[in-house]
Amino acid sequence: MTFQMSDLCNLLDEYLEPAQVAEAYRAYLFGAEAHEGQWRRSGEPYIFHPLEVARILAGMHLDHHSISAALLHDVIEDTGTTKEQIACEFGHAVAELVDGVSKLTQITFESRAEAQAENFRKMLMAMTRDIRVILIKLADRLHNMRTLDAMPPEKRRLIAHETLEIFAPIAQRLGINDIRLELEDLGFANLYPLRYRVLAARVRQARRDRREVTEKVDAAICQRLTEEGLPGRVVGREKHLYSIYQKMRNKGTPFASVRDIYAFRIIVDKVDTCYRALGMIHNLYQPVPGRFKDYIAMPKANGYQSLHTTVVGPFGIHLEIQIRTEEMARVADVGIAAHWLYKSGESAANHAEKKMREWLRGLLEIQRSAGNPIEFLEHMKIDLFPDEVYVFTPRGRIIKLPKGSTPVDFAYAVHTNIGNRCVSAKIDHQFAPLRTGLMSGQQVEIVVSDTAQPNPHWLDFVVTAKAQSNICHYLKNLQRDEASALGRRMLEKAISDLSLAIVDIPPAGMVAMLKELHLDSEDALMESIGLGKRPPVLVARRLTQGLIRSEGASVTPEAPLQPLVIKGTEGMVVTYGKCCRPIPGDPIMGFISTGRGIVVHTSTCKSVASYRSRPDRWIDVAWEEGIKKLFAVEIKVAVVNRRGVLATVATHIADFDCNIENVTMEDRDGQSSTLHFTLLVHDRRHLARIIRRVRSLPNVLRITRARR
């Protein structure tokens, strides 16, 4: 039976003023007229979809602005209605909500992924201004999932994947458990229909097999509550299918090994009763060690509060018991939406709202650091799966972090400047590596230095979106500075090859060049040269073209062309080919690679021959005298198979003040083996001394420098 506007009005009458219900009805009439002649794939008039979205929100008791916006949420996107018209008819608040939910349909994007990411970014930024935007979007997605059967199979799978990857985690982050559970099960059913049907059949069978046991447990808990004089009620439930499937997939276990399929909720009157009921449960059934969690004392990031314990019930069946107050139960079901039910006091709903505001502030910081919408979306995906650990600052403040977080994640959670300047960490008063995984209950202290800066290697182990986005943001700015400095040196060298200097370029010539290339500053031009996007020779010729004509200047054939000096301090804009691993002392060439700056190769590298067809991309380079940086180089050592031969070779290498970055062993014929070392050396002379020493060892057959 189709849901009607009269049914929605009856729901709204339960908690809204008559004038507010009338405003929602007026929004329905406006939306129905705007969508006149539009039909859904299911064959229903389009207005039925906004009605169902509004019904879902009415079940959460959202305010009349949210209901009106739900009824109008597609008119900007799918009809000729403008945001200004909605603002004129229903006010600025409703217009902002509708605009926040609407997709960006008037902008052309390079790819579907970029369009989706930008739509998601826009929606989340609107959410930071008004949380109701995401509540409307979640209700919209839920009804679309309920009616997904009308879509073709490929489209169903695409929408289901997006739902499980983004929208269900958002619902969980906001604590809206009812919507999250339904989104997950509907997403599971449409993404993996066969797996869903098989698992559903197994759960139905298990329910029949264990009905007597669960009824017995329910009766026993109710009886014990009465005996102890504890006011409360018991609600039995099954774990939803997607949760069971995730547990089976993540742990690689069959259905028969998933024990805690059944859970019981005990709803009591106040917090004190929760803990008393916990003691009663542990007296009634044997608790499972390590399976107790106190989310009342330490709520989840979405404001969720409850006591969780797992006990061994009749016949050895594991049962999960959740104990909470009525208010906690309401917040657990509708999350941040409970804010509209509890308007004062230190309620669980207000606690949930505080947690959401903290998260939204974090979103804004991630948005500022992200370079583009796709990067923002990737950081958000990381942030949407917060399986938390709880650690302490030296002053006793509790910091919540996702599972697997490291001291660097902790540092950024405390403050961005702490993260940017951290150099080491103490865990429980003991120094520990920055990549150490944190565990609940540990005390973490960060050691900082004013001269420190984020390390690119941190991106290999940090897990929080805030840490990743801030590190990436810093490194991008650093790369821009390095690229600009390198680009200026490359341009100066190219101009000097024309027997001119960069100071000879008149300001008007540089301005004309920037205008021609649609660049806003000289630094932007230098950065594009340094990143390999514009060959410096062509830029130099363009800048000096007028000078050559007017003054008769030309390249002097006898004048030697000076190579670009490689200092080893250029950072990320000069890299060294892994095919040949050049080191100071090697004759070298530079290849200008788009986005990477200069890639340095040895003159005898195979890449030099293969790239000869692109002479405009090659640049003469030379090592700076007295360069101090360490460079990676590979050597191959053929040895006789003897016990301790690897240790002997490694020890003699280390004696020459050389770091061994990596070593692997390759067995050849049982009598001999080949050791592959990656060493960090200063130059060719340093490497030559090492090779001479290793070659003289008794069990060494042959040693060569490796080139791919």
SSE layout:
Elements: H1 5-13, H2 18-34, H3 48-59, H4 64-72, H5 75-78, H6 83-90, H7 92-101, H8 112-129, H9 132-146, H10 153-173, H11 177-191, H12 193-228, E1 232-238, H13 241-251, E2 262-268, H14 271-284, E3 286-287, E4 293-294, E5 307-312, E6 318-325, H15 326-334, H16 348-369, H17 373-383, E7 388-392, E8 398-402, H18 407-414, H19 416-421, E9 422-427, E10 430-432, E11 444-448, H20 465-496, H21 507-516, H22 522-530, H23 536-551, E12 564-566, E13 574-576, E14 588-593, E15 597-602, H24 606-610, E16 618-623, E17 631-640, H25 645-654, E18 659-667, E19 672-681, H26 684-695, E20 700-705
Parallel strand pairs: 2-6, 12-16, 13-15
Antiparallel strand pairs: 1-2, 3-5, 4-5, 5-6, 7-8, 9-10, 9-11, 14-15, 14-16, 17-19, 17-20, 18-19
Helix pairs in contact: 1-2, 1-3, 2-4, 3-4, 3-9, 4-7, 6-7, 7-8, 7-9, 8-16, 8-17, 9-10, 9-11, 10-11, 11-12, 12-14, 16-20, 17-20, 20-22, 20-23
What does this structure look like?
The chain has 26 helices and 20 strands. By secondary structure, the chain is an alpha+beta fold. It folds into 4 domains: 5-146, Hypothetical protein af1432 (Orthogonal Bundle); 202-349, Beta Polymerase, domain 2; 473-623, no CATH class; 631-705, ACT domain (Alpha-Beta Plaits), CATH 3.30.70. Strands 1, 2, 3, 4, 5 and 6 form a 6-stranded mixed sheet that branches. A hairpin with a 5-residue loop joins β7 (388-392) and β8. α1 packs antiparallel against α2, α3 packs across α9 and α10 (153-173) runs antiparallel to α11 (177-191). The chain is globular, with a radius of gyration of 33 Å.
